[in-house]
Each structure stands twice: as C-alpha cells, then as structure tokens.
Amino acid sequence: MGRFCAKCGRPYSEGVVFVGNLCIRCYLEENRVLDVPSEVEVQLCKNCFSYRIKGRWLKPLTYGSPEEIVKEALAKVIEDKVRIREVHGSSGKIKVTYNVEMPLEIHSTQFPITIVAKVEAGREVYEQRYPVVAKVTFTLCPNCLMRVSKTYKAIVQVRSARDRIDRVDRRKINRILREIDPYSIIDVEEVREGLNIKVSDATTARILASKIRNEMGATVSESFEHVRRNREGKRTSKLVIVVRLPKFRENDLVMFRNDMFRIVRISGFRVVLRNERNNAKTTVSAEALWDGRISDIPETTVYKKYLVIGRDDRVVYVVDSSENYEVKEIPLGYVSENVKPGDELKVAIINGKPYVLGKA
Ligand SMILES: [Zn+2]
Ligand SMILES: [Zn+2]
After folding, report:
1. Are residues 132 and 163 in the same domain?
2. Residues of the domain holding 185
3. Rounded to the nearest whole angstrom, what is the distance from the C-alpha of residue 27 to the centroid of ligand 1?
4. Are residues 151 and 219 in the same domain?
5. What pLDDT, on the 0 to 100 scale, is given for residue 1?
6. pTM of the model
7. Which of 245, 271, 287 is the last residue of a domain?
8. How close is the Cα of 337 to the center of ligand 2, in Å?
9. What is the pLDDT of residues 149-179, one digit of tens each?
C-alpha cells in the first residue's frame, strides 16, 4: 500500500479509508459496489395481483392500487437480484446499503428506476447510482389460470349420511370455506349427492377436508382419479377426497347409553353430549357418531305436555292432562330451576322414562 492515493494523491491517513492503493473516493469512481442487472422484470397476475418471485407466486401485502402493488413487487424482485459486493478497506468499516428510487406515478409497463447505493467508509459517505429499466408483465398466475379454465388438481366431495346437504350444513361449510384461501377454490358445485368443491392444489384440499372433519365429525377418504389429457396424451391424476358428514350434528337430540342427550359440540375428534334429564355433560370420541353408540331417538318415543301443579324442595309435581290427571313427581335436578306451577313442560317418554325437554 502506497503512502498516497495512486489516482488523486491524497495522503494515506487514519481518517481516510483506502482500498488497495486508492482512497475510497477514487476506488468508488473506478469500482461498483453493487451487482445490478440493467433490467428487472415484474410478473404480475392481472386477476389477483400476485407476483412472481423466484418461481413462486406471492400474494401482495399491500391492499393498495395496482401501482403500489407494482412497487411492492419491484422491491422484492430487486432484493432478489441485487448483490452487494464485499469491499475490504484499510481501516474502519465500509458499510454498503441501498435504496430504490421509483417514479411517483407509473404510467406504463416500462419505466426507469434508480438503485442508489450508500457507502459509509469511516467518516465519509458516498453514493453510487444505478439506472435500471423496470418492466411489468401482466399475466395469469397458475391459480387464476385454473379458475379461468375451470381446471383443478383436487376435488373435495362433501356427502352426508342423511339424504342430502341442507341449508344448515351448507352454512357451516360456507363458513369453513371462508377460512380457506379464496384463490385456491376454483369452483363450488352443488350436485344431487352433495357438494363438489374444486381446489387448485392438493394441500389446500386436504386442509379443507380436515377442517370439515374437525367441525362436523365427518369421515375423510382419499383416492386418485386418473385423467387422460387430450392435447399431449399425458396422464395426470386428480386427488379426490370424499368427506362424509355424519347423520347427527350439533344441537340434535340423540340416544346414547340408553339415555337421551343433546349434542352440544363437535370439535376435533370429540363430541360433547349433555344429558337431557340431569344436564350432566359427557365427552365421547367422534367415532361414536358412526359406530352406532350415538343413535336416533326411538320411533316409539311419545311426546307429552305435563302441567306443573306444585313444587317443594325435592320434586316438582306434574299432571298429564291428556291422561288421567294422575300426579307424577319429577326430581328437581331434571327440570330447569325457574319452573313454577302453571308452566307446561314438553316431555319425551322413552322406554317409560320421562325426559323434560323444556317449557312447552
Ligand atoms: Zn484518491
Ligand atoms: Zn392470480
């Protein structure tokens, strides 16, 4: 290392950073600190404004104008393309950072931007400016392409152990669908057997199926359907997931262990049941919805109205006005606390046991 800068003759000192035999100012006149392409391209989906970075399509973070999304995408592309070169100086740290100067307004698909490198060397700060041409290409991302052409990679077929998917099921499924990335749902088709939900990718289809299973106690089975493509004659396969909803759902009255219960909640692999006579809660595995442990209220059930004629600290006294007005006693724990004389109770009689379903 010489005692003077080889270019400008500045003397070597502690305060001036040298790179080789050049002072930092002269070094920066001769050398670039960034590797920057002369042109950067942004691929933007004209339908959903996703943009492509390193082969992947990303959703924009900003919900602004297309212009703002272009700027966001451009910043990501530049981050991917620009490299900072390492510069080793004589003393002190050489710190290189950069920012991007973009036009305030973008009026065309091709416009100039400037990448400005800031070089901090000891006490001195320098700038290097790199003009770059930014190009924006509008295209369709794979998901939007599938939506437009109605092609899909997976299908979730929702079926029910009852005869059909009704409005209650549909409302719940719609709510679950809202938790799924809308751009992955290609189509929701109502068919006689239920719902066919076409999904752009297998992962999203599996997430959807498991959410329905978790919230509705459904069973899930997977298979592949082989499809021959016309154009190239290439074989492709589609994932087919059949999601079968159980016969029973939340709020239904059911029989379980010879008692009448109401299904309070289906969640995960569990079903929470509440005994209709004493309000005691029980949790069982969701399999019980399928293996017969949870079953229909028997057809022999008789529904009656009982009139409350009195109560003490142990029981309420009721009469069945449709019969012989014989006074019956129902333990207090089996009726709600606010029951008073004059109330009518709706009662189900199953195998001779009365279940108070509430006020009539
Ligand atoms: Zn110099
Ligand atoms: Zn798109």
Report:
1. no
2. 144-245
3. 7
4. yes
5. 47
6. 0.64
7. 245
8. 58
9. 888 899 999 999 988 899 999 999 999 999 9
Q: How far is the CA of 101 from the centre of ligand 1 (A)?
A: 28
Q: For residue 28, give the ligand nearest its CA.
A: 1
348 domain-assigned = yes
CA of 207 to the centre of ligand 2 (A): 20
- Closest ligand to C-alpha of residue 124 is 1
Distance in Å, CA 8 to ligand 1 centroid: 4
CB 165: neighbour CB atoms within 10 A?
19
CA of 28 to the centre of ligand 1 (A): 9
What ligand is nearest to the CA atom of residue 142?
2
Q: What is the pLDDT of residue 230?
A: 59
Distance 7 CA to ligand 1 centre (A): 5
Residue for token digits 């942004």?
Answer: 42
What residues pair up with 89 in beta bridges, in sequence order?
Answer: none
If asked whether residues 260 and 338 sit together in one domain, one would say: no
115 with 38, same domain: the answer is yes
Could you tell me if residue 59 is inside a domain?
A: yes
- Per-residue DSSP letter, 72: H
Going by their DSSP bridges, the two strands 270-275 and 259-267 should be labelled as antiparallel
Say which ligand is closest to the CA of 5: 1
Give 144 Cα–ligand 2 centroid separation in angstroms.
4
Q: Tell me the CATH number at 57.
A: 2.60.40
Which segments in the chain show pLDDT lower than 50?
A: 1
Residue 4 CA, ligand 1 centroid: distance in Å: 8
How many whole angstroms from 92 Cα to the centroid of ligand 1? 17
Q: Cα-Cα-Cα-Cα dihedral of 152, 157, 158, 160, to 10°?
A: 170
44: three-class secondary structure by DSSP: strand
Decide which of 81, 110, 139 is a domain's last residue.
Answer: 139
Give the number of domains in the chain: 4
The amino acid occupying position 161 is A
> Considering the domain boundaries, does residue 12 fall inside one?
no
**257 shares a domain with 348:** no
Burial pattern 191-206, b for ≥16 Cβ within 10 A else e, equals eeebbbbbbbbeebbb
User: Is residue 78 in some structural domain?
Assistant: yes
